[in-house]
Amino acid sequence: MHARTRSIVAAAAAGAMALVGLSGCAASAGSDEPLVGLVIKTQDNPFYVKMTEGAKDEAEALGLNLQVASGDGQSDVDSQIKAIENFTAQGAKAILVTPAGDGIIPAVKKAQEAGVVVFAMDSPLGADSGIDGTFATDNYLAGVLVGEWAKAALGDTEPRVATLDLSTDQIPVDVARNQGFLEGFGIELGDPSKMWDETDPQLVGHEVTDANEAGGRTGMEKLLQKDPTINLVYTINEPTAAGAYQAVVAAGLEDQITIVSVDGGCPGVTNVQKGIIAATSMQFPLEMAKQALQAVEDFLADGTKPKNSDGLDFTNTGVTLVTDQPQDGVESEDTTFGLEQCWG
User: Fold this and answer.
1) What are phi and psi of 44, to 5 degrees?
2) Average per-residue pLDDT in the chain?
């Protein structure tokens, strides 16, 4: 299997990031508790909301003074740079960041030169980043799981496959999920570091959606205008899938088209239960935050840095396929499990 990468869907806001919260301990700026900065991409995505909740709870339990910076836009590297610089200037001992892109690497290195340990969460940075550790879902595996499930579910039906992706920017999460799905389905990849260079005739189209419901509906409408014979749709996330389903129903094709996705949010798992989404790969933001904060504690105690999971260049915080239509040879859990573990 190709090297797996991980990132996630939403990104940071235009302009400077604002401080939006403190840990549950509500430590003051003059506290003796070590300052830890958390730089999330947006407050509008339930994944990051749940991650922040988990980080606050864990920071309080560990006696860390957690402060959170957030934006409200897409892929705003400049905002993340400013947030990292601000936390560094405030004397943070550690910074956790969900990277909007490799453009933050110089700020990360400056923070490290100032003695700050920097961990990435959810999204990887480039190989030359020098990041001190990364905690993320194995996005490639998430794609593989729904691809394998879809291949088994279609059986002998001739595949007419379309993808609803995030953007044209080849963002790591977008690429990893897309390419993992295609590999899991058995479609030969071109360059696994980018999307849309495959030549397999089973692939009949793709559209970008900005990873939201409105984009999912519009993208699905465009796909069906181009090819109404589509019978399988992979979506970058569950809000996109919900929008795609609206377009499918409007076209009267809900009995023809199977939709698979990635995320594990409670609305998405509920849509799996309803049959709107056939299968989804669940990720675990609470576990991601917990492991990252525990790594901060370990580093502050004795300089220990986290180890990568076997075969990966990051610490995998878990991914599980959720479906109520299990397929032979594809490990999965049902929506009862999913609703117990979901977020948002």
Assistant:
1) -85, -15
2) 90
Question: pLDDT band at 20, cuts 50/70/90?
Answer: very low
Other beta carbons less than 10 A from residue 334's beta carbon: 15
Residue of 160, 181, 142, 179 whose CA lies nearest to 257: 160
Q: What is the DSSP letter of 2?
A: P
CA distance 61 to 140: 32
Most confident listed range (61-75, 120-134, 310-324): 310-324
Residues 263, 283 contacting (CB under 8 angstroms):
yes
Residues 178-229 pLDDT 10s:
999 999 999 999 999 999 999 999 999 999 999 999 999 999 999 999 999 9
Mean per-residue pLDDT, 332-340: 98
Residue type, 174: D
- Work out the widest C-alpha separation in the chain, in whole angstroms: 66
- The backbone region for 31, taken as left when phi is positive above 0, alpha when psi lies in -120 to 50, beta otherwise, is beta
The span from the CA of 106 to the CA of 126, in Å, is 12
E strand intervals along the chain? 18-22, 35-39, 65-70, 94-97, 117-121, 133-136, 161-165, 203-208, 232-235, 258-263, 279-283, 315-316, 319-322
Per-position DSSP letters for 38-69, written without gaps between them:
EE-S-SSSHHHHHHHHHHHHHHHHHT-EEEEE
pLDDT, tens digit, for every residue of 145-170? 999 999 999 999 999 999 999 999 88
Cβ contact 174:166 at 8 Å: yes
Cβ-contact 22, 68 below 8 angstroms: yes
How far apart CA 287 and CA 61 sit, in angstroms, is 15
